[in-house]
Amino acid sequence: QVQLVESGGxxxxxxxxxxxxxxxxxxxxxxxxxxxxxxxxxxxxxxxxAIERSGDSTYYADSVxxxxxxxxxxxxxxxxxxxxxxxxxxxxxxYCAARLGGYSSTxxxxxxxxxxxxxxxxxxxxSS
Length: 128
What we know:
Layout: E1 4-7, E2 10-13, E3 18-24, E4 32-39, E5 46-51, E6 58-60, E7 68-73, E8 78-83, E9 92-100, H1 106-110, E10 117-118, E11 122-127
Parallel strand pairs: 2-11
Antiparallel strand pairs: 1-3, 3-8, 4-5, 4-9, 5-6, 7-8, 9-10, 9-11
Protein backbone atom coordinates (compact mmCIF):
# COMPACT_ATOMS: atom_id res chain seq x y z
CA GLN A 1 0.00 0.00 0.00
CA VAL A 2 1.16 3.54 -0.69
CA GLN A 3 -0.04 6.90 0.59
CA LEU A 4 0.23 9.96 -1.60
CA VAL A 5 0.42 13.63 -0.61
CA GLU A 6 0.33 16.38 -3.23
CA SER A 7 1.72 19.87 -2.76
CA GLY A 8 2.65 22.92 -4.79
CA GLY A 9 -0.76 24.13 -5.89
CA UNK A 10 -1.82 27.75 -5.68
CA UNK A 11 -2.95 30.84 -7.55
CA UNK A 12 -1.00 31.91 -10.62
CA UNK A 13 -1.60 34.30 -13.50
CA UNK A 14 -2.13 33.03 -17.02
CA UNK A 15 1.20 32.31 -18.65
CA UNK A 16 2.83 31.48 -15.36
CA UNK A 17 4.27 28.25 -14.03
CA UNK A 18 3.81 25.91 -11.08
CA UNK A 19 5.47 22.69 -10.05
CA UNK A 20 3.38 20.11 -8.27
CA UNK A 21 4.94 17.42 -6.13
CA UNK A 22 3.50 14.14 -4.95
CA UNK A 23 5.31 12.42 -2.09
CA UNK A 24 4.71 8.72 -1.60
CA UNK A 25 5.12 6.67 1.53
CA UNK A 26 6.75 3.27 1.63
CA UNK A 27 9.91 1.62 0.40
CA UNK A 28 8.67 0.35 -2.95
CA UNK A 29 7.86 3.57 -4.79
CA UNK A 30 9.85 2.28 -7.77
CA UNK A 31 7.23 -0.48 -8.17
CA UNK A 32 4.46 1.98 -8.95
CA UNK A 33 3.61 3.67 -12.20
CA UNK A 34 2.35 7.16 -11.44
CA UNK A 35 -0.23 9.46 -12.97
CA UNK A 36 -1.56 12.98 -12.62
CA UNK A 37 -5.23 13.82 -13.09
CA UNK A 38 -7.33 16.92 -12.60
CA UNK A 39 -10.94 17.65 -11.87
CA UNK A 40 -12.72 20.95 -12.39
CA UNK A 41 -16.03 21.70 -10.60
CA UNK A 42 -18.90 19.79 -12.15
CA UNK A 43 -16.63 17.85 -14.49
CA UNK A 44 -15.14 14.39 -14.61
CA UNK A 45 -11.64 13.60 -13.46
CA UNK A 46 -9.37 13.89 -16.51
CA UNK A 47 -6.01 12.35 -17.29
CA UNK A 48 -3.07 14.74 -17.51
CA UNK A 49 0.16 12.76 -17.52
CA ALA A 50 1.68 9.44 -16.51
CA ILE A 51 5.13 7.99 -16.04
CA GLU A 52 6.44 4.46 -15.96
CA ARG A 53 8.15 2.99 -12.91
CA SER A 54 11.66 3.70 -14.15
CA GLY A 55 10.70 7.03 -15.69
CA ASP A 56 11.68 5.89 -19.16
CA SER A 57 8.23 6.35 -20.66
CA THR A 58 5.80 9.22 -20.26
CA TYR A 59 2.29 9.89 -21.51
CA TYR A 60 0.40 13.17 -21.87
CA ALA A 61 -3.06 14.42 -22.63
CA ASP A 62 -3.19 16.46 -25.82
CA SER A 63 -4.41 19.47 -23.85
CA VAL A 64 -1.14 19.73 -21.91
CA UNK A 65 1.41 18.30 -24.32
CA UNK A 66 4.31 20.70 -24.74
CA UNK A 67 3.36 22.69 -21.62
CA UNK A 68 3.47 20.13 -18.81
CA UNK A 69 6.26 17.72 -17.91
CA UNK A 70 5.99 14.73 -15.61
CA UNK A 71 9.08 13.37 -13.89
CA UNK A 72 9.98 11.26 -10.90
CA UNK A 73 12.78 10.79 -8.42
CA UNK A 74 12.63 7.25 -7.06
CA UNK A 75 15.31 8.04 -4.48
CA UNK A 76 13.00 10.69 -3.00
CA UNK A 77 9.74 8.77 -3.51
CA UNK A 78 8.37 11.75 -5.39
CA UNK A 79 6.69 12.44 -8.70
CA UNK A 80 6.52 15.94 -10.15
CA UNK A 81 4.37 17.84 -12.59
CA UNK A 82 6.00 20.94 -14.04
CA UNK A 83 3.30 23.15 -15.51
CA UNK A 84 4.27 26.01 -17.82
CA UNK A 85 2.26 28.46 -19.92
CA UNK A 86 -0.73 27.96 -17.67
CA UNK A 87 -4.17 28.88 -18.91
CA UNK A 88 -7.40 29.66 -17.03
CA UNK A 89 -8.81 26.38 -18.30
CA UNK A 90 -6.10 24.55 -16.35
CA UNK A 91 -7.88 25.56 -13.14
CA UNK A 92 -8.81 22.41 -11.23
CA UNK A 93 -7.94 20.17 -8.32
CA UNK A 94 -4.91 18.13 -9.31
CA TYR A 95 -4.51 14.56 -8.07
CA CYS A 96 -1.64 12.13 -8.23
CA ALA A 97 -2.33 8.43 -8.44
CA ALA A 98 -0.37 5.19 -8.21
CA ARG A 99 -0.65 1.83 -9.90
CA LEU A 100 1.33 -1.18 -8.74
CA GLY A 101 3.20 -2.37 -11.79
CA GLY A 102 3.65 -0.81 -15.20
CA TYR A 103 1.37 0.04 -18.10
CA SER A 104 0.49 -2.38 -20.86
CA SER A 105 -0.80 0.35 -23.15
CA THR A 106 -1.24 4.10 -23.45
CA UNK A 107 -4.95 3.64 -22.86
CA UNK A 108 -4.24 1.92 -19.58
CA UNK A 109 -1.98 4.77 -18.46
CA UNK A 110 -4.78 7.25 -19.15
CA UNK A 111 -7.65 5.44 -17.43
CA UNK A 112 -8.85 6.52 -13.99
CA UNK A 113 -9.70 2.90 -13.18
CA UNK A 114 -6.05 1.88 -13.66
CA UNK A 115 -5.03 3.51 -10.41
CA UNK A 116 -5.72 2.10 -6.97
CA UNK A 117 -4.16 4.79 -4.81
CA UNK A 118 -4.97 8.50 -4.88
CA UNK A 119 -3.82 11.61 -3.08
CA UNK A 120 -6.13 14.18 -1.55
CA UNK A 121 -5.57 16.71 -4.30
CA UNK A 122 -4.13 20.21 -4.55
CA UNK A 123 -5.95 23.22 -5.97
CA UNK A 124 -4.51 25.05 -8.95
CA UNK A 125 -6.17 28.32 -9.94
CA UNK A 126 -5.09 30.25 -13.02
CA SER A 127 -6.34 33.81 -13.29
CA SER A 128 -6.79 35.58 -16.60
